[in-house]
């Protein structure tokens, strides 16, 4: 998918006219009969009208009212792009002009974003691929208020989401931990950020006990990838560190998950890692003047061979001992090592993303991200503001120290699970133990993977995390 800045509409180009409900359409639909038809549609509270001009299509799409909050209007615009996409597919449209006919430029951009994200497909393993492909390939933005640079930056963010979705949708038969690191290296080479990958021997030398414990049941080695974007004009003296859970497949280990509706889609358990890689790609492609480091510990979690077992005590990278009571609480084990490793950077802030708990998914479903942390109120509010702007919203949970009580072990420093209640929070408090810096934990278990198509977020991997992180880092870089 390519989004391109365009100065004017060509005579026979397919076009989507973005309008307000009450505006005069005579300038955009000169034919009186057609205009009456469109007006009748709008009077019936329809938001879209299609005019088939035989050699091209004209689609009139009404967007939200100006008295609505801006974030709401932007999400309406994105969803409008999703709703128009099937019309274009039905008419085999491969390119379309999106014309601002009276809406705000940001809404025009949001519409194009929703349209482009809707066009994503993962067809790598499908036979007869061409028959199943969406037709739309190019979106031309016709809006005098937009610059070519703005459109280029939108392209890079959309591609970052595409790449993130690709990673999440890849099965373990391709995307082992080693292959994940190779794919990240490709992204780094294209975008311009550095990637260093620790192999198993290096991980063993560092004594990353959590990552190694989870990997013990696998024949495939773990990796630990370090992604670095450090421009000369960076506005921050200490890096912003992003940590992503990279469990490329999670069987639950010896605490085996049931297959149906639990294990069967666990290729998505590296959604946090994919989002971190995607965010670094967008930041680097758009040359944001902000120093960002990504840390991605990766392995699969299997119940084979010498797999770690409930009752084991694991010594982590920072020396903490952890009593393992559930091998399916594996994400926090390898994330703990990464969070401890982050201390060496003296970070300004660490944001960690992970498909961590069913409790977070159960609490708010796919409609948002569960967030918590010990960073300042200002930092959390800024991140939540980015979540509202991108519609990757954060539902902030309490982060009270009372929850630490559930993690006390009789034989080690910590247990790797808490009690029956508050599971999303006790997981966050477990991770906090390994930090000594401002920290925010984002649990993306709910919105990371869609078993059925969900608006422009699509089917399968949604790419959640990329757009909120990019917007936050964009605002931080200003």
Tell me about this structure:
This protein has 478 residues and is of the alpha/beta class. The chain folds into two domains: 2-144, 3-Layer(aba) Sandwich (Leucine Aminopeptidase, subunit E, domain 1), CATH 3.40.220; 157-477, Aminopeptidase. It contains 15 helices and 20 strands. β12 (313-315) and β13 (321-323) form a beta hairpin. The longest helix has 22 residues, at 148-169. The protein is elongated, with a radius of gyration of 24 Å. The model has no long low-confidence stretch (mean pLDDT 96).
Number of domains: 2
Structural class: alpha/beta
Task: Tell me which CATH architecture of the largest domain applies here.
Answer: 3-Layer(aba) Sandwich
What's the CATH H-level homologous superfamily of the largest domain? Zn peptidases
Model regions low in confidence, pLDDT < 50 over at least 5 residues: none
Please state the overall shape, judged from the principal axes of the Cα atoms: elongated
Percent helix among the residues? 25-40%
Sheet bearing the most strands, described?
9 strands, mixed
Taken as a percent bin, the fraction of beta residues is 15-25%
Work out the radius of gyration.
Answer: 24 Å
The number of helical runs is: 15
The mean pLDDT is 96
* End-to-end Cα distance: 28 Å
């Amino acid at each position: 998918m390519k989004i391109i800045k365009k100065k004017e509409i060509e005579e026979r180009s397919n076009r989507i006219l973005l309008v307000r409900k009450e505006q005069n359409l005579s300038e955009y639909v000169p034919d009186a009969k057609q205009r009456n038809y469109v007006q009748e549609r709008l009077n019936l509270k329809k938001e879209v009208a299609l005019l088939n001009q035989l050699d091209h299509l004209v689609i009139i799409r009404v967007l939200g009212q100006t008295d609505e909050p801006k974030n709401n209007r932007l999400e309406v615009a994105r969803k409008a792009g999703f709703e128009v996409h099937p019309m274009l597919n039905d008419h085999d449209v491969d390119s379309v002009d999106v014309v601002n006919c009276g809406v705000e430029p940001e809404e025009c951009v949001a519409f194009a974003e929703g349209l482009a994200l809707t066009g994503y497909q993962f067809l790598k393993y499908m036979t007869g691929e061409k028959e199943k492909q969406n037709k739309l390939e190019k979106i031309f933005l016709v809006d005098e208020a937009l610059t070519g640079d703005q459109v280029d930056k939108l392209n890079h963010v959309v591609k970052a989401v595409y790449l993130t979705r690709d990673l999440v949708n890849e099965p373990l038969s391709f995307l082992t931990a080693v292959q994940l690191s190779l794919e990240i290296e490709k992204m780094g080479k294209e975008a311009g950020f550095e990637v260093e990958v620790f192999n198993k021997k290096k991980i063993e030398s560092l004594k990353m006990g959590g990552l190694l414990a989870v990997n013990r049941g696998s024949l495939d080695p773990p990796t630990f990838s370090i992604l670095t974007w450090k421009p000369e004009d960076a506005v921050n003296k200490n890096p912003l560190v992003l940590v992503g859970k990279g469990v490329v497949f999670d069987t639950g280990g010896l605490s085996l998950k049931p297959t149906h509706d639990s294990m069967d889609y666990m290729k998505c358990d590296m959604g946090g890692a994919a989002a971190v890689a995607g965010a670094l790609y967008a930041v680097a492609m758009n040359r944001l003047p902000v120093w960002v480091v990504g840390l991605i510990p990766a392995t699969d979690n299997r119940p084979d061979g010498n797999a770690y077992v409930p009752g084991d005590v694991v010594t982590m990278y920072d020396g903490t001992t952890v009593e393992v009571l559930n091998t399916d609480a594996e994400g926090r084990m390898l994330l703990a090592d990464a969070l401890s490793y982050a201390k060496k950077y003296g970070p300004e802030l660490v944001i960690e993303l992970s498909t961590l708990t069913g409790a977070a998914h159960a609490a708010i479903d796919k409609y948002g991200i569960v967030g918590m942390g010990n960073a300042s109120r200002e930092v959390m509010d800024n991140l939540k503001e980015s979540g509202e702007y991108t519609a990757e919203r954060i539902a902030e949970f309490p982060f009270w120290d009372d929850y630490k009580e559930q993690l006390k072990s009789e034989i080690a420093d910590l247990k790797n699970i808490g009690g029956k209640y508050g599971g999303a929070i006790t997981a966050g408090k477990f991770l906090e133990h390994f930090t000594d810096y401002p920290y925010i934990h984002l649990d993306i278990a709910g919105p990371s993977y869609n078993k059925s198509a969900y608006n422009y977020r699509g089917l399968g991997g949604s790419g959640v995390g990329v757009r909120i992180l990019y917007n936050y880092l964009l605002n931080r870089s200003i």
